[in-house]
């Protein structure tokens, strides 16, 4: 009975973290979609791309440090207090809305991003502690990977169906999304429990820290590959709505809806493919090529054949999420993995990923402002291609695949 109750608590904690991250995504994407209205309020007119994208830079920059901070907080406070701290920081998104200027608004959104980054890092040790079945673990990790997409999908639907109402008063719109965090904070305080993140670990595992992670070549390749993935993923969902509306025949809200909607379908396909035991590396390479290639084609036809572009964007979103759960489950499939080791690895992984993606976004927006739309998109696709080359250097974590290759 005690084990059953503990398992129920574990699932409850996973659900709260998942919903909190969905809310974070809704708040982030909605804020980005409302950038013209927000900058109009604070500056009285249009601003340069580098300024309009400042909030997105600040959020991704904050996430670089937050992911490293997350592991330290977890080890100092334990899972219950650390998770509560993370969800509590998300509520700064509500405070940001009513601050008097753009810079204070940006700073508060950065604090919100710290909380969001900590939440996603804490998903991994919770899953590792409560779930032992590998197939169930892949399913839950897949659900965790789609959390951001679920939030983006909800926002895309609202902005597609109720566009005028969403932009009429940006403060009221963001207040609705940000207020939901309060419910999840209360739920976490009510039911979350502590557990030992080093349980069942030998001396070698207990000694694993950031110095060890920094020496791990896989963590670096893994993090930089995801930085490239995020460049395509985050820009397409967060920044491209306004860009498509201004420079192409495409409707930015529809593109967001297609990416996030077909991404959710792709997640289910990724779970099914992953649980069939396919070799991980070839799957990631092929889906990576499809993801980047179809998005490149969408850009080519964006001003001549919008229907072709919409189809390519839908296919890109689907391919994106077929591989996403498989990709983020890789560390769980490595030998000797523990909640503690996962927290350290994912802390550095997310930091590298968001640092790389932030740099790519700054360069992209600078090129957009100085050289124009086409050169900026050439850079965008080039940066996204790096993912394919780095994935090709990964180890094969599916044991059957490793054994079959050795036998050959």
UniProtKB/TrEMBL annotation:
Origin: domain of life: Bacteria
Topology relative to the membrane: Multi-pass membrane protein
One GO MF term: transmembrane transporter activity
Transmembrane segments: 12-30, 50-74, 86-104, 110-131, 143-164, 170-190, 219-244, 250-271, 283-301, 307-330, 342-367, 373-395
SUPFAM superfamilies: MFS general substrate transporter
Source organism: Mesobacillus foraminis
Protein name: Putative MFS family arabinose efflux permease
Keyword Transmembrane listed: yes
Coiled-coil ranges from the UniProt annotation: none
Subcellular location: Cell membrane
Keywords assigned by UniProt, alphabetized: Membrane, Transmembrane, Transmembrane helix
């Amino acid at each position: 009975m005690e084990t059953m109750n503990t398992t129920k608590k574990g699932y409850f904690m996973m659900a709260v973290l998942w919903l909190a991250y969905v809310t974070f995504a809704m708040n982030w994407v909605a804020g980005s979609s409302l950038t013209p209205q927000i900058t109009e309020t604070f500056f009285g007119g249009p601003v340069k791309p580098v300024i309009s994208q400042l909030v997105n830079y600040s959020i991704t920059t904050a996430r670089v440090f937050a992911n490293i901070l997350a592991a330290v907080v977890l080890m100092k406070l334990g899972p219950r207090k650390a998770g509560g701290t993370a969800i509590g920081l998300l509520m700064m998104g509500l405070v940001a809305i009513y601050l008097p200027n753009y810079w204070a608004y940006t700073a508060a959104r950065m604090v919100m991003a710290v909380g969001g980054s900590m939440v996603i890092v804490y998903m991994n040790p919770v899953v590792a502690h409560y779930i032992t079945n590998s197939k169930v673990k892949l399913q839950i990790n897949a659900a965790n990977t789609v959390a951001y997409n679920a939030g983006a999908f909800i926002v895309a639907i609202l902005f597609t169906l109720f566009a005028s109402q969403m932009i009429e008063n940006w403060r009221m719109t963001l207040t609705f999304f940000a207020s939901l965090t309060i419910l999840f904070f209360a739920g976490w305080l009510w039911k979350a429990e502590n557990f030992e993140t080093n349980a069942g670990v030998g001396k070698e595992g207990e000694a694993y820290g950031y110095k060890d992670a920094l020496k791990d070549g896989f963590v670096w390749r893994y993090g930089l590959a995801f930085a490239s993935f995020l460049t395509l993923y985050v820009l397409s969902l967060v920044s491209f709505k306004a860009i498509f509306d201004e420079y192409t025949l495409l409707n930015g809200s529809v593109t967001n809806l297609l990416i996030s909607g077909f991404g959710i379908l792709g997640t289910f396909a990724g779970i099914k493919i992953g649980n069939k035991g396919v070799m991980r590396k070839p799957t990631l390479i092929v889906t990576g090529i499809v993801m980047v290639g179809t998005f490149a084609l969408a850009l080519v036809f964006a001003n001549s054949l919008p229907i072709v572009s919409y189809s390519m964007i839908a296919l890109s979103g689907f391919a994106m999420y077929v591989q996403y759960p498989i990709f983020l489950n890789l560390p769980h499939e490595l030998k000797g993995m523990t909640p503690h080791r996962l927290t350290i690895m994912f802390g550095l992984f997310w930091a590298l990923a968001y640092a790389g993606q932030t740099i790519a976004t700054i360069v992209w927006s600078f090129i957009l402002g100085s050289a124009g739309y086409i050169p900026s998109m050439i850079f965008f696709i080039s940066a996204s291609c790096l993912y394919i080359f780095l994935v090709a250097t990964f180890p094969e974590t599916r044991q059957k695949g490793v054994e079959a290759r050795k036998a050959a």
